[in-house]
Write a structure and sequence with these properties.
By secondary structure, the protein is of the alpha/beta class. The protein has one domain (3-149): Rossmann fold (3-Layer(aba) Sandwich), CATH 3.40.50. It contains five helices and five strands; from the N terminus they run E-H-E-H-E-H-E-H-H-E. A five-stranded parallel beta sheet has the order 3-2-1-4-5, sandwiched between helices. Strand 1 (3-8), helix 1 and strand 2 form a beta-alpha-beta unit. The longest helix is centred in the middle third of the chain and has 24 residues, at 54-77. The radius of gyration is 16 Å and the shape is globular. 30% of the residues are buried. The model is unreliable at 120-126 (pLDDT under 50).
Length: 151
């Protein structure tokens, strides 16, 4: 029976490294991978949204959805042997969305790539992987960047 993994990806170098790592692990462990990309639905800085004309809002949402789908396709290409499925969700909270999809699909593990930011960046920017580690009831695999991409 295959281990069901949810790979949260934004197609960043860390996320693509996680996809490659999972592809390598699949040589020893049967894996079923679902790639999740989240299109941020809020406009403005951070989680604060501002009001825009509805037609402009629809156009912007369509643009971020296209970008998220492109990220999923690029991630999928990094793991050709696994032939993962992918889904895209629109949300204003990435972590809640990842956890919700993990529960919906009854995954065994959530996998994310680590960007390689230091402590200061995590304090200022927040960290999806850190928030997943503190809020998830499922195991989390945080895959580090390749050695050449470490700070």
């Amino acid at each position: 029976m295959a281990l069901k993994i949810l790979l949260a990806s934004d197609a960043s170098p860390g996320a693509l490294r996680a996809a490659e790592w999972l592809e390598q692990q699949a040589q020893a462990i049967p894996l079923q991978v679902i790639i999740l990309t989240v299109a941020m639905a809020s406009l403005g800085l951070g989680q604060g949204a501002f009001v825009v004309d509805p037609s402009v809002h629809t156009q912007l949402i369509n643009t971020v959805l296209e970008e998220a789908e492109d990220a999923a396709r690029r991630t999928q290409k990094a793991m050709p042997k696994l032939n993962p499925t992918w889904i895209t969700r629109t949300s204003t909270n990435i972590v809640e969305t990842i956890l919700g999809v993990a529960n919906e699909y009854a995954v065994d593990v959530i996998a994310v790539g680590r960007r390689g930011h230091g402590t200061w960046s995590s304090t200022i920017l927040g960290s999806v992987s850190l928030r997943l580690l503190t809020h998830s009831s499922q195991p989390i695999w945080v895959i580090p960047p390749s050695r050449e991409n470490l700070p």
